[in-house]
Write a structure and sequence with these properties.
- The complex is a heterodimer of chains A (770) and B (489).
- Chain A is of the alpha+beta class and 770 residues long.
- Chain A contains 19 helices and 29 strands.
- In chain A, the strands form 7 sheets. An 8-stranded mixed β-sheet of chain A has the order 3-5-1-12-9-10-11-20, with helices on both faces. In chain A, strands 7-15-14-13-8 form a 5-stranded mixed β-sheet. In chain A, strands 16-27-28-29 form a 4-stranded mixed β-sheet, sandwiched between helices.
- Chain A starts with 21 loop residues before the first helix and ends with a helix.
- Chain B is α+β, with helices and mostly antiparallel strands and 489 residues long.
- In chain B, α2 packs across α5 and α16 runs antiparallel to α17.
- The longest helix of chain B has 19 residues.
- The radius of gyration of chain B is 23 Å and the shape is globular.
- Classes of the chains: A alpha+beta (770), B alpha+beta (489).
- Chains A and B meet through α1, β27, α17 and α19 of A and α2, α3, α4, α5 and α18 of B.
Amino acid sequence: MSAPARQLETASVGLSLAHDSAVLHVRGTATYVDDMREPDGLLHVVPGFAKEGARGKIKSLDLTAVRNYPGVVAVLTASDIPGLNDCSPSIGGDPILADGEIEFHGQVIFAVAAETRDAARRAARLAKIEIEVAKPAITVDDAIAMETRDVLPPYEFGRRDVGAALKSSTHRISESLLVGGQEHFYLEGQVGMAYPEEHGGMIVYSSTQHPTEVQHLMAKMLSVPDAMVTCECRRMGGAFGGKESQAAQWAALAALTARVTGRPAKCRLDRDEDMIMTGKRHDMRVNYEAGFDNSGRLSAVDVEFLSRCGYSADLSQGVNDRTMFHADNAYFYPAARIRSRRLRTHTVSNTAFRGFGGPQGMVFTERMMDAIAIKLGLDPLDVRKRNLYAKGRDVTPYGMKVEDNIAADLITQLERSSDYRARRAEIDKFNRQDGILRKGLALTPVKFGISFTLTFLNQAGALVHVYTDGSVHLNHGGTEMGQGLYTKVAQVVAEEFGLPASRVRITATTTAKVPNTSPTAASSGTDLNGMAAKNAASIIRQRLVDLASREWKVPKSRIRFADGQVIIGNESVSFGDLAKKAHQSRVSLSSTGYYATPKVEWDRPKAKGRPFLYFAYGAACAEVTIDTLTGEMRIDRADILHDVGRSLNPAIDIGQIEGGFVQGMGWLTTEELVFDGQGKLRTHAPSTYKIPTASDVPEDFRVELYQSKGNREDTIYRSKAVGEPPLMLGIAVWSAIGNAVASLAPGKIPPLDAPATPEAIMRAVKAMRP
Amino acid sequence: MARNVIRFLRRGQVVELGSVPPMRTVLDYLRLEEKSRGTKEGCNEGDCGACTVALGALRGGRIVYEPVNACILMMGHLDGRELVTVDDLADGEALHPIQQAMVDHHGSQCGFCTPGFIMALFTLYHAGAKPSRREIVDHIAGNLCRCTGYRPIVDAAHAACSGRAIDRWAAAADQAAATLARLGDSSDAFIGTEESFIAIPRQPETLVALATKHPDATIVGGATDVGLWITKQLRTLNKIIHVGGVETLHKIEDHAGHLSFGAAVTYAEAENRLASIDPDMGEVVRRLGSKQVRASGTVGGNIANGSPIGDMPPMLIALGATLHLRHGTGERQMPLEDFFISYGKQDRSPGELVWQIDIPKLKPSETFRAYKISKRFDQDISAVLAAFRFTLDGRRVKSVRVAFGGLAATPKRAARTEATLEGVSLDDSASWSRAMSAMAEDYQPISDMRASAEYRLETAQALLRKALIETAGRASAETRVIGQREEAA
């Protein structure tokens, strides 16, 4: 689709500028950590693990052959760690090197450092490790049956007496469904490189969404003050949440090697090991019961999410809380009980993944809408519309009032533009022929809460310098993983100075310039860092205005910055000349900036407050055809309407929307994680784990931005966050598949789990046959 | 006297390498030796395309560029070719048309897959015709992007690939062709020692002699499997013998009743001929691997490695193909199904070479159907690969050959099912059900990450039903969500 024309009175903000690194990307000159020229004497670090066993005491660990392999310089185990042996982002429990026992297959027990990566890899395989294997809990059902200790306490919120409300409902349904996990499959695997510095310091180049956390964890591991460690990240080759907390361990192995050997060291995971050793989206079993009236309007919802967290807590609290926050999606529940258990399994620790638990909540919600429609013989879209938040029905189960509700308008627009009703009639006609192929159609909304639910994370810092030639150096705490954050923030700063964005030099995120940052996560990157950078730039701008007003004796109201010039009354000077003058007049041309999101507060123990500043909305309509003999599925068409407020960069926003949809669609269709009974991941490479390819994207793919008057909250240029919300547009595809299967037996709810692989579709199809 | 260097054309110069470790991949050569860091390692198993580079080869006097995965490409594969990487494309400040289109269409986000896409599209740019959307999508099926959702990349390809290449490679095509012609002389190459070497024989006699002399050597076709022995299994392979340099092994011969393929014929070379046998065969080959895999991989290799999940063997068995093997001066042949003895075991002695495969064409009384079932349509290994050849007598099945991949430890015929189907009527679907039950006697599949045993067997039965329904006359537009035969016709 083409980007709509800019509607703002701005010069830089709102333009569909190319990604700041686009030219470097296509030339192959964008430098990722593994592309940096290696310093002299660099060692290559490879983690080692036990080939057999997911859980148990390490009975014996014989690393002689590893040490003796030609080229090996050091072999490290837990006892080599001078400080804290933990890389957990939360409550601990994530040893950098396993000490005494392992809790999942693939847990790192030792690291080998060698002159070449090939030598390190080959040496690592020579370890003789015996595990006193205990029976592992692999699935949530295993965890419940074996009564493993939950990684975190259960949590619940809701309103009114849900039991009574269910009892008095006209209709009730209850179901249990499985929602699968997802591998991030960032194209650039995990990597960290460390250089030892003076006084025990360390500089770490890490492909991480959270340089500050890497810095702090390295300092604790090395037992040095935070100030002795610097972490830098110019760009990641994709992250999607997978490098929020789980980039640290690899940086740690590099830093530990650097400390022990005094030589620079790099740890880059092989793809298979990356997939085995790092966490994924939480998969869940969802049990629910819903009560509703004859029109399909809900009276009560009782839902429990049983979440596979893996062996440790990692970010599971926030992830699973967000599942609960999105168990309503865009719908009002008069009575609700929303419960969550965070189960411990002997599998890798599941972690952040675009949507951070929200998608799992929404898959349940949309499934429930479909089930109600099937039960009542209604069009699912009518059921959805009847249940949307509306005036007087606008308080979420967690007590936040929905003030910015545009769901109904957005859905109605998409219903019209996608020609939903006419296509529904055609599909019904097609399915009445009772052929081998069946069609399905679904239109599902997305309402996604924007802000970190851990309130203190909603802050950001930036650093802006103006040089005396008028060029600008920009730095902020956000990281670039492809989402275009650097570009958008540069546009904001350029706007402030009336410069073209090309005059703003974007620099690598580093803890040495902007400290104590939050992870680039929760879709908040632009909201937070854009505001912080604007703040920094406007401070400098104000100093320049003050100076110009003083020197030219012109009121401040008559000073403007545009087209690289500063217009001072009837005169104009170049921005560079004014910068030079400022320097000569001893006016500072450098400033930090800061932003803290207003209004948000969340009292978790009481389950009250306002966890989100606002909501981002969107909707997708998908049409699919399934083969009832094989379960194969094709997406015939997808229409998307998505709300980004007033777009800072429509091209980048559309890129997020399309990419998010395809990633969500992949999660719910072809992407299947398979663990065997011993806890080994069997799908640990792209040969066995299938993310969408170009041919999976519907040929008829129509994506539009919702014509918004802007975010009603005072965000950066009234834009809205766009990183995560579009992923959940992919639910329309899964829902359409269910819709196609449901056509086989009217009134019967197809037991379709996610992902809807051909096999899962066939299971559902078979269940529909008499 | 054998040549003791690998020679290839790079950036207008002939590169000669005399000291190459046998297990060196092209990706490691680029990143670690040449220090060209534009080409990325995404998966190191030929499945993501981030390491895609272009190889130029002389075909009929012209240079043809094909995309290949550098991570599992052996250095010997460069011999006599031109190597083009993403680092080479821009001309000073000026971007190549493919690069410019990718920028203009916002085709990159994180940028890590981008060099691979650029190089895949570079080969499409040089393919000589304006591609359709379908052709673009096929062309990049081996390049994974996790950020964009592909739409802008497809748009960029649309915009840039006009069918006419105007770039430095087009301008220097004659010169490059002359260089490759010179490099492609008939000299056998042998790099290394008797204990550790890369051999690239050009003469069939040399190949046969080497294989006999070094029965412990690894015979390499496209290395789309052998590459993983090195990059993933970390096996030590000290002796590598390439078969691709032998011209006669690239021959495709069209005989009255059958087609003959030399063992080193790549899928890219065979694609059209295989599709001419039947559109279903063409469709399976289109979905087999990716453009990169098909440019490297060979039909002979797919047979020789004996995988139970290779896509070619079931189709070839159903068609009644004959395999030719050569050992020293001796040659023997056998029906293809006899080659596969048990899991990992084929009827091939050390030093013996898969030489040629003869594939019978369909007779007017015969129909063929093949179906590939996988989680993802493109570039996925089959959970089930079904192939049927029906010989009809009017509306009756006179005889049938049924073969499946993914249902047993080897590609395997369904003897009981075949017997049961003899004489059934296409118009009496009730008479088909005995064959469905017979299939459960022919196959006892296993469960793995691709599919459960139950799904495999039930799908096999369903595919037999589908094949019969289609053979009875139902249009495949009504029976398939992908690979409709009407489209191919």
